[in-house]
Write a structure and sequence with these properties.
about 550 residues; alpha/beta; Rossmann fold; GMP Synthetase, Chain A, domain 3; eight-stranded mixed sheet; seven-stranded mixed sheet; 15 helices; 28 strands; about 25% strand; binds adenosine-5'-diphosphate
């Protein structure tokens, strides 16, 4: 029996029309070197229509790809809506990729047009001759004359181009399963691979972002979106905000701790999202120059494991709860969110909050051991996490890396355990697991424990070869400014916190943990430094 219900398409054109009309007065604030620049969602709707008209006038048709090489700002947001709503495909280019990777992803996606921020023109200019399919570059917030384009590429001013366009667009009817946007993985563990989101997957994911067991976005929120729009779609916050009318605060290129503190003071956001390293930096800034941040009802932290010490400091010193979440570019990215279950209080609630979180109804999960067996959810059995669902990738663009997918499941490459009530605890990435004498040591657990020492700003743990045990942990420590601590003291500190056989015997002190293009610990580079003998290691 077929249902008697309508089959309305979950398209981003509908989302844009809804948000710009119903939430016409909600605001997008972009931070600039002159302070805040504001526009309403009604303005955003008109600018998105102008941009769509402009792209049509440049010959963009069908599902052609339009790249963005932008900070988080109002122009990027207009592109987020205009490009998918007109039926084309938004490709957010990661401005921090290595040059060869940038060339690779733009050519692989066959980008026809690139929208670039004025401040990023020099960075793009270097690679532009290598971008084989690009025919037009649109410069926003800058002077197009600064770009020397190779022959065959036309350069336009965003403002001039849009000024000449009508502020309405006849948005086409779009099949909700067609491509809306694409994002390449940041390549922490290999070559970037393209994930292509559909209108439907983005719509459903946006609903989840707003749900009470998730980020709880509402019209009362002013959400500071620090996680870049080129990184896993800013964790879905821009689309979710449009759905419910939450106002957005875009930090543009002002991502260092000091300007972030200024943005907090000026705009008093109620919500924010960023990777742990951003919050670590902000914490040091707040310690140096205290300010009230209690206007934040909550901040969401993911992308890497959030150290419990960071959660405690934020909550106990500044009254701001951290909500820990797990996800991947491949999962749109919301996979699990760590809200404790009803009734959990005190220490028990904290134990839940440290986990990577609970799976929502739309994300199915299972753990697989080395022999392919499905493991129980007993919070003990450790295996590789696999997930499936309507906003989880089922393939990469062009069929890259097919072994990541099987029987309708995505192999995440993450290793962990799941509790009977559906909370995920990750112990490692498959490639970062340390195998010592046949037993696994969790690099994440060790890092968190070392980082709970007051003198430690950051700690990254990698496995290094060992004749007797195969691999043993090496801890790379960054000491907080103005403090000091020795390897002996840290080993002593760990001695009653980790099992004796896990106690690391290799320690090194570094100025900074190398980071990937999206601010995660870059263990590939740390391992390379070690094998090239560039680290000064103390052995016990
Ligand atoms: P890349 O794979 O290039 O790093 P992603 O941003 O897609 O880019 O990274 C997803 C990965 O980040 C996950 O597979 C997981 O290893 C890690 N990750 C994300 N959130 C968390 C978290 N809360 N705790 C631990 N690891 C996380």
């Amino acid at each position: 029996m077929l249902s008697t219900m309508q089959d309305g398409q979950l398209s981003l054109a509908n989302l844009l029309e809804h948000g710009s009309r119903v939430h016409a007065t909600s605001q997008v604030t972009t931070w600039t070197d002159q302070g805040p620049r504001r526009e309403t969602y009604a303005d955003l709707g008109r600018n998105a229509a102008r941009l769509a008209n402009a792209l049509r006038s440049l010959g963009i048709t069908g599902d052609q790809r339009v790249g963005t090489f932008m900070w988080n700002n109002a122009e990027h947001l207009a592109a987020y809506f205009a490009i998918p709503a007109m039926g084309a495909v938004l490709h957010t280019l990661n401005i921090r990729l290595f040059p060869e990777q940038l060339t690779f992803v733009a050519n692989h996606a066959e980008d026809q047009v690139v929208l670039v921020d004025g401040s990023l023109v020099p960075l793009l200019a270097k690679q532009l001759p290598e971008l084989k399919t690009v025919r037009h570059v649109i410069v926003a917030n800058g002077d197009p004359a600064t770009l020397q384009a190779p022959s065959g590429v036309e350069v336009h001013s965003y403002d001039a181009l849009l000024a000449a366009q009508p502020d309405t667009f006849d948005w086409p009817e779009i099949d909700e399963r067609s491509a809306a946007a694409m994002c390449y993985t940041s390549g922490t563990t290999g070559e970037p691979k393209g994930v292509v989101y559909s209108h439907r997957s983005i719509w459903l994911h946006s609903m989840q972002v707003c749900m009470t067991d998730s980020m709880q976005l509402s019209p009362a929120d002013r959400a500071l979106v620090i996680v870049p729009m080129f990184h896993a779609m800013s964790w879905g916050m821009p689309y979710a905000a449009m759905m419910v009318g939450a106002s957005l605060i875009m930090p543009d290129r002002f991502l260092q701790p000091k300007p972030l503190a200024q943005i907090l003071a000026s705009e008093k956001p109620t919500f924010a999202g960023a990777v742990p390293t951003i919050w670590q930096g902000l914490l040091q800034q707040l310690e140096a120059e205290p300010q009230d941040i209690s206007h934040l009802r909550e901040v969401v932290v993911g992308g890497s494991a959030c150290p419990p010490a960071l959660m405690h400091t934020f909550e106990e010193r500044y009254g701001v709860p951290i909500l820990h979440a797990w996800g991947m570019t491949e999962t749109s990215p919301l996979g699990s969110v760590a809200r404790p279950p009803a009734g959990a209080t005190g220490e028990q609630a904290w134990q839940y909050r440290y986990t990577q979180g609970r799976f929502p109804a739309s994300v199915r999960a299972r753990l697989i051991d080395d022999d392919g067996n499905v493991l129980p959810w007993d919070n003990e059995s450790v295996g590789e996490l696999e997930v499936a669902g309507p906003w989880i990738a089922g393939a990469y663009h062009g069929g890259a890396d097919p072994e990541k997918f099987h029987d309708g499941w995505l192999r995440t490459g993450d290793v962990g355990k799941i509790s009977p009530d559906g909370y995920l605890t990750l112990t490692d990435r498959a490639k970062d697991v340390i195998k010592s004498g046949g037993e696994w040591i969790s690099s994440v657990d060790l890092e968190n424990t070392v980082m709970s020492h007051p003198a430690v700003a950051e700690a990254a743990v990698i496995g290094v070869p060992d004749e007797k045990w195969d691999e043993r942990p090496l801890v790379a420590v960054v000491v907080r400014e103005g403090q000091s601590v020795t390897a002996e003291e840290l080993r002593e500190f760990l001695s009653d916190k980790v099992a004796k056989w896990q106690l690391p015997e290799h320690w090194t002190f570094i100025d900074e943990v190398p980071k990937t293009s999206v601010g995660k610990f870059d263990k590939k580079r740390l391992r390379a430094f070690h094998s090239q003998g560039k680290l000064d290691v103390t052995h016990f």
